Amino acid sequence: MTNFMLLKGFEVELFTGTFAGKNVGVASAITKDLSDFVKEPDQRNLEYITIPDQRYAVLKHALLLPRIKLRKWLDCKKLTILPGSTLSLGNTTKFERSEVENPYHSYIEKNYGTKVVTASIHINLGIENLSLLFSALRLVRCEASLFLALSASSPFLGGNATGAHSQRWVQFPKTPLNVPMFVDHGHYVSWVEDQLAMGTMQNERHLWTSVRPNGPERPHVLNRLEIRICDLVSNVDLLLAITALLELRIINLKNNIEKYDPMEASSKTPKELARLADENDLIAAKYSLDGNLSHWKSGKKITCREWINELLLDVTPLAKELDMFELLQPIGSVLRKGNQSMKWLNSYSKGVSIQSLLQKGISEMEREETNFIQLKSSY
Hints:
two-stranded antiparallel ribbon, alpha+beta, seven-stranded antiparallel sheet, globular, single chain
């Protein structure tokens, strides 16, 4: 069955801090000692990148092993990995540079400040066929709000509840402001070249949108789709479930372009689709699973939960055929019990402090890693 599967890789951004949940920046020191990690512009967070693989069991190892290695390093400094995607108990007025001499970091600090100091998961799916890549880009962009809703984990900022389930996506500066629904590779190349000429993008990487094409020589050489909208998903089984749902959507699309490509199957124009997708993203950032979204096929209103359930029903036959059905099960749990933000906000409304919620999240992440080590050693 692996012949049907896509290569999948992750870029995982994490915050470091104290066991009381306060953000502390040590990325410069970590990246000197641990070659698996790379710095972000602000040194309170850092990133690791997994090697692409088709197999979900291998991906689970690839996601957890760097976390275990990082935790050992942090333990020696009486620090830990923090859950969540924003500076929940951090200073939002001060940018803490990881590389003072880096001109791109200077540009980011000057133009965006701490709005960009967030932690997220970028999911990359390998698609070398350019026609399929841009069809997938359109489908995933039109459904990106659903994946944000499943992953939302940033309701707090600077010691307060913000009123949003994904404060990260509310505050993160989408760049450029208006990104079209790309018709094909040629459209994307000419658009990127125009943005670079106008200065609305500083370089080929400076396309900060919910989903984008990616590859070794952007914009010309592309080999994967990168979904960037998801908050940090601490629970690896849930992250793999979200990835499996994405992969199944793309395989269904490959098998039936006319049914799944919004350019073919929607009553909306490309401009209308782009606007609808962006509006849905912001609604999901605010209300996540409780959001009332507009479906890309017709523009009709649909609740986020209902739409995700529709997707699950749609991919179930293929999931069973590819032996991926069990992978999807954590999504059902999120639909029933709520995502990370919803659970936190429910407890917060009953008087539980942000510090206590973060401490519980720290313990849950650590327990997941301990269970993984014990399971691995029992083989």
